[in-house]
Amino acid sequence: MGRIVLKDIRKSYGAVDVLKGIDLDIREGELVVFVGPSGCGKSTLLRMIAGLDRPTSGAIEIDGADVTQRSAADRGLAMVFQSYALYPHMTVRANMAFGLQNTRMPKAEIDARIAEAARMLEIEPLLDRRPGQLSGGQRQRVAIGRAIVRRPTAFLLDEPLSNLDAELRVSMRAELSALHDRLKATMIHVTHDQVEAMTMADRIVVLRSGKVEQVDTPLNLYNRPGNLFVAGFIGAPGMNLWAGSAAPGGFAVQGGPVLPVAAPAGAATVGLRPQHLVLDPVGPMAAKVALVEALGAESVIHAGLDGGAPLLAVLPGQPGLVRGDTVRLGFDPAHLHWFDAQGLRIGG
Ligand code: ADP
Ligand code: MG
């Protein structure tokens, strides 16, 4: 249970088209992450799936049944919001029980479900507190607990970790992944954070301006981004993307050197991840260092190529470079990504 199929979902608010035809097939038990820049339509799409809002056109199926016109209460899904949306005047226990009491579930069953979820989330000592007496991370656990006790067909989580500090975010995302393994329920997790997407997802849906740019496993998106947007969005820091054209001896980068590599027909942009550049005294790229971000284990080098095009390199350790240094860099041509004039990936 928990397969969710979206068929050509469109949503307009007046003259503004927010979702422009979304097709998706989310498998039973899958953890799918919707990722994309702020305002691209992630929350809108999740609200359509939840039934909190209706699409302008298109259909939503859950386990083969068309639920497009069904109310949120009839869809068997549970949503967790960034804002937690807990009732401040109720205890944690009452917050978790609230949705179940409305279904007239027997008290013993409600108590058993709350006890089980509280144990799973390690919030047993908090059950008699009110939300105001909890930290942000504890509140988020309670919000997730309130979803778990409903035993939904699928969990819909809209940026549930965005209000947490960086350290807590890292541990909560590991907890959510573990919870998914244990519950084996379908989960749709929305985030604008591509690291969160990479670390949690079975499959990532990359959205931009109300359209799906690419759907694939995290590593397939990283290794084979289908277009320039995905190439730039997945991976941190972002991939170097240099416009250019085939030239005698290789590929001529605008504002840079001629790279001695065989460019495929139609190549208009070459991409190279900062981690795939290496210091090489006979490498084809000469760059002047503009800024060094020394992180200890690695160093992020912001530099300019001879013709002025920017270059970003992530070098291991502490290479001892400072602003104004000139470096030569090389790469393994197998790491190059090629895109055509439309921004689409060329080749495998
Ligand atoms: P995301 O969650 O990806 O940041 P949203 O789905 O919240 O983006 O919003 C997508 C776009 O739709 C935004 O440009 C937003 O302003 C617009 N939008 C969302 N809800 C409404 C609404 N009720 N009326 C008008 N525009 C809306
Ligand atoms: Mg949103």
What does this structure look like?
The chain has 348 residues and is of the alpha+beta class. It folds into 2 domains: 221 residues, Rossmann fold, CATH 3.40.50.300; 109 residues, Beta Barrel (OB fold (Dihydrolipoamide Acetyltransferase, E2P)). Helices cover 24% and strands 33% of the residues. Helix 2 crosses helix 3 and helix 3 packs across helix 4. The two termini are 35 Å apart. The chain binds adenosine-5'-diphosphate and magnesium ion. The site of adenosine-5'-diphosphate (ADP) has 11 residues, from strand 2 and helix 1.
Summary?
The chain has 348 residues and is of the alpha+beta class. The chain is 24% helix and 33% strand.
Morphology call: elongated
Percentage beta strand: 25-35%
Give the count of structural domains.
Answer: 2
CATH fold title of the largest domain: Rossmann fold
CATH superfamily of the largest domain: P-loop containing nucleotide triphosphate hydrolases
Query: What CATH first level of the largest domain would be assigned?
Result: Alpha Beta
Unique ligands: adenosine-5'-diphosphate, magnesium ion
Uncertain parts: none
Number of strands: 20
